[in-house]
Design a protein that fits this description.
about 0% strand, mainly alpha, flat, 5 helices, single chain
C-alpha cells in the first residue's frame, strides 16, 4: 500500500522585479485606450482588425515615413515594439467591448421603453 499526502500551500511571489515594467505597461495601455476611444468613429469603420491595428500604430508610432498624431513615443521612450503591439491589441479589444456593450444596452433600453417598461440594470 502506498500512502500519498497532499498539502496545500499558497505560493507567494516575492519577486518584485517586474513591478515597474507592469506599471509602465498599464500606463501605456491606459494612454492607448484613451486614443482609441477618441478616434473610435474612424477606427470602427475599418473592415478588419489588422487594418484597425495598423491605423492605431500609425497614430501612435513615429517612423521615417510616418509622423504620429499622438506623442506615445515621447511619453514612453524606448518602449519595446512587442509590448506596444500587445498593449494596442489589448486596448482595441477593451474599447470594442465597451462600445459593443453600450450599444447592446441602448438597444435593450429602447425595447423596454417601447413596451412602456423601465429597464433596471445594476
Amino acid at each position: 500500500m502506498e500512502c500519498i499526502k497532499t498539502v496545500k500551500f499558497k505560493i507567494k511571489v516575492s519577486d518584485k522585479s517586474f513591478n515597474n515594467t507592469i506599471a509602465i505597461y498599464n500606463e501605456a495601455l491606459s494612454y492607448i485606450i484613451s486614443i482609441i476611444n477618441d478616434e473610435w468613429n474612424t477606427i470602427s469603420t475599418l473592415a478588419t482588425v489588422e487594418k484597425q491595428l495598423n491605423f492605431i500604430e500609425k497614430l501612435i508610432h513615429n517612423t521615417k515615413k510616418n509622423k504620429a498624431k499622438y506623442d506615445f513615443d515621447d511619453r514612453f521612450y524606448k518602449f519595446p515594439s512587442y509590448l506596444r503591439r500587445a498593449a494596442t491589441a489589448e486596448a482595441l479589444g477593451t474599447v470594442k467591448s465597451y462600445h459593443s456593450n453600450l450599444e447592446n444596452y441602448i438597444k435593450k433600453k429602447a425595447q423596454y421603453e417601447a413596451k412602456g417598461k423601465i429597464l433596471k440594470d445594476n
